[in-house]
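fyi for ur records
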Amino acid sequence: MKPNFEAMTKAELRAYVLEHRDDLDALESLFSRHSPDSTTLRFALPQTEEEWQQQLEIIRPILEKDREREMQRKQTTDESAESSNE
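which gave:
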């Protein structure tokens, strides 16, 4: 029986794929988590405390949004697992 890839964190799934390189379902699940539309933010190394704070103000909302999205995904997969066990 295969594990529930949707319930795994990205790090857990990556570790699983590295151990089970022939498992195409796991690999597909890992690749599906990467969005080709995602953007990369690059910042210069802050030279002052003010620059550090400015970068934090930009990054913090992005990280919070990602955290909320991950929690929603996990909650959805948990609910799916519970309903399938009933």
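The two ends are 18 Å apart (CA to CA). thats all i got for now
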